[in-house]
Design a protein that fits this description.
Blueprint (H helix, E strand, L loop, with lengths): L7 H22 L8 H14 L3 E2 L22 E5 L2 E3 L14 E10 L2 E10 L5 H19 L7 H14 L3 E2 L5 E3 L6 E5 L16 E4 L2 E3 L5 E3 L6 E3 L5 E3 L2 E6 L2 E4 L3
Helix pairs in contact: 1-2, 3-4
Length: 260
């Protein structure tokens, strides 16, 4: 599939969307505490996004038809909220109340002036144990190491290999089924970004590419389990998972973080 390269002007529009995503995270950060429900976080995010003239891109989203996805109902929330062993696509709920020691991945996607912003961050709810903190630190470092490989002339395999090596060196695993992706006016565009692989393989990176890097790092095995709601993805072994995501653009001078 062809990749739609973005012009400098389009990248600036994507940066504006990405910065609104970042502002939404900063707002939510103060609300991630014991006793808060994921539905409350969802409402806070949606109100803020709409107040800035944007719209939550996940709300009502219907994924592309592919194996296992064709009968999924539209996503009901404005953000994805993934607690503890939920890897991704957790649905906000009045029943899911945060507890001391939890971790919660919050994935925010929005459209501003026709352009998409998309990022994810995993928050600790109060103090967490040492193993969980190690998972969070490793997952964040995986993202940073992937971004460090995102230079014109490198390959997608260089990104995936750096992430995989760091995760596995620290005793964790990388989810295979769920990937990063290109974006622009659409939430999902080419290329697909794997978070594992071999150096020097895959598509070569060129200026004008815009995509997300969003490794999902599991404390146990990489195997996943899809819930009956058609959205919520959990670790198959019940161990915790953490995710961090940025959207970036490739330039001749290195990666440009659009959601940083």
């Amino acid at each position: 599939m062809p990749i739609t390269l973005k012009s400098p002007r389009q990248i600036e529009l994507l940066r504006a969307s990405g910065q609104l995503v970042r502002e939404t995270f900063e707002l939510l950060r103060d609300h991630v505490r014991p006793g808060v429900t994921t539905a409350e976080l969802d409402a806070i995010a949606e109100e803020f996004i709409r107040s800035r003239g944007a719209e939550p891109v996940y709300k009502g989203y219907v994924p592309p038809s592919r194996r296992g996805w064709s009968k999924i109902p539209p996503f009901p929330g404005s953000i994805c909220v993934s607690i503890n062993d939920v890897i991704c696509h957790g649905i906000p709920s009045k029943k899911d109340r945060l507890r001391q020691g939890d971790i919660i991945g919050i994935d925010i996607g929005l459209r501003l002036n026709g352009w998409i912003g998309d990022a994810c961050e995993t928050f600790a709810v109060g103090e967490v144990d040492d193993q969980t903190q190690h998972l969070l630190t490793t997952a964040r470092n995986c993202l940073e190491l992937g971004i460090a490989q995102a230079h014109a002339g490198k390959t997608l395999g260089d990104i995936g290999a750096a992430i995989q090596h760091h995760a596995e060196t620290n005793g964790f695993s990388v989810v295979r089924e769920y990937t990063g992706h290109g974006l622009g006016r659409n939430l999902h565009e080419e290329p697909t970004i794997l978070h594992y692989g071999e150096p020097g393989t895959g598509r070569k990176l060129i200026a004008g590419m815009v995509f997300t890097i969003e490794p999902m790092i599991n404390a146990g095995k990489a195997d996943t389990r899809l819930e009956r709601d058609g959205w919520t993805v959990r670790t198959a072994d019940g161990k915790r998972s953490a995710q961090f995501e940025h959207t970036l653009a490739i330039s001749q001078d290195g990666p440009i973080l659009l959601t940083g």
